[in-house]
């Protein structure tokens, strides 16, 4: 990722949660520990169904007297409504600030040029009152800047950054193995732990209860994780079906199609360390094994 490039992620949205119960409110529903989030650290987290299935994922950043949630914009209204359901009598205010703030992304090397920056996933600093976060999922993704829309281009100019093709960023994310687009297609289709949220620093197994915690902990403790969400690359043809086969056996299901596809793979049934080709009706494909998966 070039030091002078910045990617304006217009497909990301921002929710702001504030109020005297905001910390406890989030702690009771997210997979990570909200106590990790402060002025110098942000985290990645998700909300699951009571059965432990995927619903939403987002970054959490401390902002003034509350928290920013950086989420895929296509999911923002549904996430807002989900949070309202959990609110009940909690003294919490939930605001959609997607029209006031914009999310952009820079390289890790550019991040390290900021005064006080540290090469620690989730490390957070301030630039002209805006949050700059080294991605808590994987440092290779670079750093987020959450900028007030009115200050966007002035800030980019002062930082000597050039707006670049956002597809470059999402191609990098796909290669690294992190799904960020069309995530609504994952809803209720797989367990949160199958999304690799443990490896992406999105699950805290010591924090105690949250929605979906029981099944998540059971899969982890009983070593029952047999499937993972992994990026795939189409070698030939066009995807016409969802089922992935190898030697006449079904070994996976495509959940996200499009330019940056992902599939739920029975990873224990195949050798991810080779370049085997797999069949899906109308296409031949390869499964990409991220370097952070052992």
Short description:
With 294 residues, this protein is α+β, with helices and mostly antiparallel strands.
Q: Strands, helices and their partners?
A:
Blueprint: E1 5-9, E2 12-18, H1 22-27, E3 43-48, E4 54-63, E5 66-72, H2 76-87, E6 93-96, E7 101-106, H3 108-111, E8 124-127, E9 130-134, E10 143-148, H4 152-158, E11 162-163, H5 166-176, H6 213-221, E12 228-237, E13 243-246, E14 249-256, E15 262-265, E16 278-280, E17 283-287
Parallel strand pairs: 1-11
Antiparallel strand pairs: 1-7, 2-5, 2-6, 3-4, 4-5, 7-10, 8-9, 9-10, 12-15, 12-17, 13-14, 13-16, 14-15, 16-17
Number of helices: 6
Unreliable residue runs? none
Helix content: 10-25%
Mean pLDDT: 95
Distance between the termini: 25 Å
CATH topology of the largest domain: Gyrase A, domain 2
Q: What does the radius of gyration come to?
A: 19 Å
Looking at the overall shape, the CATH architecture of the largest domain is: 2-Layer Sandwich
What structural class results from the helix and strand content?
alpha+beta
Q: Indicate how many domains the architecture comprises.
A: 2
């Amino acid at each position: 990722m070039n030091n002078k490039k910045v990617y304006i992620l217009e497909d990301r949205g921002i929710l702001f949660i504030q109020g005297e119960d905001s910390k406890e409110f989030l702690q009771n529903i997210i997979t990570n520990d909200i106590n990790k989030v402060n002025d110098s650290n942000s985290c990645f987290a998700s909300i699951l169904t009571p059965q432990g299935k995927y619903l939403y994922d987002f970054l959490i950043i401390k902002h003034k007297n509350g928290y920013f949630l950086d989420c895929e914009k296509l999911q923002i209204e549904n996430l807002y409504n989900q949070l309202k359901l959990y609110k009940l009598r909690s003294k919490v205010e939930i605001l959609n600030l997607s029209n006031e703030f914009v999310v952009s992304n820079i390289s890790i090397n550019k991040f390290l040029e900021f005064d006080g920056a540290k090469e620690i996933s989730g490390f957070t600093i301030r630039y002209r009152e805006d949050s700059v976060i080294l991605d808590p999922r994987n440092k290779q993704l670079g750093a987020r800047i959450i900028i007030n829309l009115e200050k966007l281009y002035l800030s980019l100019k002062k930082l000597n950054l050039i707006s670049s093709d956002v597809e470059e960023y999402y191609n990098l994310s796909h290669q690294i193995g992190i799904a960020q687009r069309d995530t609504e297609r994952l809803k209720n289709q797989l367990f949160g732990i199958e999304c690799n949220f443990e490896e992406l620093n999105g699950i805290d197994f010591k924090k105690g209860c949250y929605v979906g915690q029981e099944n998540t902990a059971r899969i982890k403790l009983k070593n029952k994780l047999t499937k993972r969400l992994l990026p795939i690359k189409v070698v030939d043809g066009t995807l016409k079906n969802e089922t992935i086969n190898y030697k006449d056996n079904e070994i996976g299901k495509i959940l996200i199609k499009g330019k940056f596809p992902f599939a739920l793979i029975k990873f224990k049934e195949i050798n991810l360390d080779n370049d085997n080709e797999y069949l899906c009706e109308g296409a031949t494909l390869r499964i990409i094994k991220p370097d952070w998966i052992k």
